[in-house]
């Protein structure tokens, strides 16, 4: 990936010294063989030095996986396991960690061949809690070699995201626009997550943009845009300025990356942006997001963070949308009712001016921004990318800090329906089961802003585990409850 780490998971097997070491050795070998057969060799590294039975073994294994360049760790209980040294290994490893354990293979070998890792996982979890060590433990963490290989593969997007957050910088430009306090949130939690933040003035950005006047790379960049837009290139006269702006942002990223490996941008897009720059940045934002550099609108820092998390999990382009408007009753009746298994209140339209990458639009065209043009000259609002969002499965989610600097998140699976929106902007008709109740008892009740990140595909399982790893639990980690499963604030008599 361009803007996220490749994952290399070190697999370290552990053994309690009163159990046969061969149990862990043979089970580790079987696990590694199963993983390679199902998922290939690139993602895992088998620590060959020792089976960890003691603190000395732990230090040897730690040195080995670090030398091998592992950025994630799987502690594999081939038998009961040494609760002290195995959790010390997790504590001292500088990266995301998972634990899983071997199931017993056969009824014919339950004397010398019984490992009791089912029991050992209990002690491991207890000791992790004592040490204050975070670890990913699968829903059912005891399995055969093939089952544990699947568990490790499910850990890959989780590990990628957690590792990426430790080397992420979010670059912001300007304060939130007037009347957009909803996008304002304390940055303390960014530092708690290990994320760096660089906040700049719009004047800094404008100065950098002006320095790119006449940049010799502009014609080539314009050609890229023309090829991407094709017949949708309705505003060709604005492309040179958009190309200049894209080069400005790309150069800024490289000049300001600093010690961080990965970058996301929280950009300013109105109200003075258009009058000073002479265009809107939507199309450029969509292109950078398509390159793997998520860009949020309206200086939404936690929106950019959420997009980046979705990008790491899905290994795909993401977008940020307003949870925008209800679906008209006549549209629901004509195009949705009886054709799809959703109530009217399960549906809504997700919209933004034009920041969604062309690859995630059924068709696209470059236009002016209608909302902004209601109060500004149309010629300075050109540069937005319009089109209906591609139908298919989506995950709608957001990680957010509250006003008193507490982390919260929500996750909901749904889909974009193959129904024409008959509207403007980058927009789609979304359907999420029990959205009406979720809207009221999570989004409104928990004071979430109007922006939600969209990952294409269903990625809730990995996102849920990531947010748990980051310390969220209870109602601070919300999802759309099915019918009959009431929210704490839901009136049971309604």
In words, what does this structure look like?
The longest helix is centred in the first third of the chain and has 21 residues, at 145-165. The chain has helices spanning 21-39, 55-67, 83-92, 117-131, 145-165, 188-193, 202-211, 218-229, 239-256, 272-277, 282-290, 301-314, 329-335, 370-373, 435-444, 460-469; strands at 9-14, 44-46, 72-77, 97-102, 142-143, 168-173, 196-200, 262-266, 295-296, 318-325, 347-352, 365-368, 382-388, 392-401, 407-416, 426-431, 451-456, 477-479. With 494 residues, it is α/β, with parallel strands linked by helices. Helix 2 (55-67) packs parallel to helix 3 and helix 8 (218-229) packs across helix 9 (239-256). The protein starts with 8 loop residues before the first strand and ends in a 15-residue tail after the last strand. The protein is built from 16 helices and 18 strands. The model has no long low-confidence stretch (mean pLDDT 93). Helix content is 37%, strand content 20%.
What's the gist of this structure?
The protein has 494 residues and is an alpha/beta fold. Helix content is 37%, strand content 20%.
List keywords for this structure.
alpha/beta, 18 strands, 6-stranded antiparallel β-barrel, 5-stranded parallel sheet, 494 residues
């Amino acid at each position: 990936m361009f803007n996220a780490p490749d994952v290399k998971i070190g697999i370290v097997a552990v053994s309690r010294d009163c159990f046969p070491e061969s149990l862990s050795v043979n089970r580790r070998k079987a696990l590694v063989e199963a993983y390679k057969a199902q998922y290939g060799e690139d993602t895992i590294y088998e620590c060959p030095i020792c089976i960890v039975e003691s603190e000395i073994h732990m230090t040897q294994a730690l040195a080995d996986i670090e030398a091998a360049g592992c950025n994630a760790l799987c502690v594999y209980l081939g038998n009961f396991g040494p609760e002290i040294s195995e959790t010390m290994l997790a504590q001292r490893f500088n990266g995301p960690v998972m634990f899983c354990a071997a199931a017993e293979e056969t009824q014919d070998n339950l004397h010398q061949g019984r490992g009791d890792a089912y029991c050992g996982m209990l002690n491991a979890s207890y000791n992790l809690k004592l040490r204050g060590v975070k670890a990913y433990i699968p829903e059912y963490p005891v399995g055969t070699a093939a089952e544990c290989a699947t568990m490790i593969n499910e850990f890959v997007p989780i590990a990628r995201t957690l590792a990426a957050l430790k080397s992420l910088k979010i670059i912001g430009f300007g304060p939130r626009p007037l009347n957009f306090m909803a996008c304002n949130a304390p940055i303390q939690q960014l530092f708690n997550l290990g994320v760096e933040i660089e906040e700049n003035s719009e004047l800094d950005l404008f100065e950098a943009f002006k320095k790119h006047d006449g940049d010799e790379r502009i014609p080539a960049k314009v050609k890229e845009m023309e090829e991407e837009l094709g017949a949708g290139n309705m505003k060709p006269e604005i492309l040179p300025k958009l190309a200049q702006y894209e080069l400005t942002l790309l150069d800024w990223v490289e000049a300001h990356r600093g010690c961080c490996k990965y970058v996301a941008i929280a950009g300013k897009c109105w109200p003075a942006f258009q009058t000073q720059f002479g265009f809107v940045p939507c199309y450029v934002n969509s292109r950078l997001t398509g390159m793997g550099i998520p860009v949020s609108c309206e200086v939404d820092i936690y929106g950019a963070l959420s997009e980046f998390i979705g990008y790491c999990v899905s290994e795909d382009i993401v977008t940020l949308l307003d949870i925008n408007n209800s679906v008209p009753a006549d549209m629901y009746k004509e195009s949705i009712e009886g054709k799809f298994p959703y109530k009217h209140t399960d549906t809504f339209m997700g919209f933004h001016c034009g920041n969604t990458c062309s690859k995630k639009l059924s068709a696209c065209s470059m236009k002016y921004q209608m909302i902004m043009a209601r109060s500004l000259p149309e010629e300075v609002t050109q540069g937005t990318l319009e089109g209906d969002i591609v139908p298919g499965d989506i995950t709608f989610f957001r990680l957010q800090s509250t006003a008193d600097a507490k982390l919260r998140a929500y996750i909901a699976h749904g889909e974009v329906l193959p129904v024409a929106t008959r509207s403007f902007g980058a927009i789609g008709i979304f359907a999420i089961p029990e959205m009406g109740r979720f809207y009221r008892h999570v989004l409104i009740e928990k004071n979430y802003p109007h922006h939600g990140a969209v990952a294409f595909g269903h990625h809730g399982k990995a996102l849920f585990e990531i947010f748990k790893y980051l310390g969220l639990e209870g109602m601070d980690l919300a999802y759309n409850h099915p019918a009959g499963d009431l929210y704490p604030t839901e009136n049971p008599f309604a």
